[in-house]
Amino acid sequence: MSKYLKYLFCLSLCSLTACERLGLADPAKEAALKEADARATGSACRHAGRGIEDCYALNPAAARAAVYAGWKEMNDYMRENNIADVKPSIEVPVSAETEESASDSASASASASASASAH
């Protein structure tokens, strides 16, 4: 019976070493992945020639400190190696709020110009 318990103990010990497969998250790994992702985002923003403020605005969920670290790291690397910016081929989509404010200001200026020309 003790041989059976030893076998069961070893089997349970081996199964617990693969906690990721059980769906148990490791907070340290998740934090490291999020930081690495934010640093990569900052690097990509700098390589694309975007300013740090634009990078923050385009990636609000990313940690600002890590985004800045990646942006600065890429900036230093690009300066040292004389690497030019790579302009993005896809434009940033305009948010609904920006469209609303643009249409409001356009309609306000149109009505102001219409009333000025009527007088």
UniProtKB/TrEMBL annotation:
Biased composition annotated in UniProt, kind: Low complexity: 103-119
Keyword hit for Signal: yes
Keywords carried by this UniProt record: Signal
Signal peptide from the UniProt entry: 1-20
Residue numbers spanned by region Disordered: 89-119
Official protein name in the record: Lipoprotein
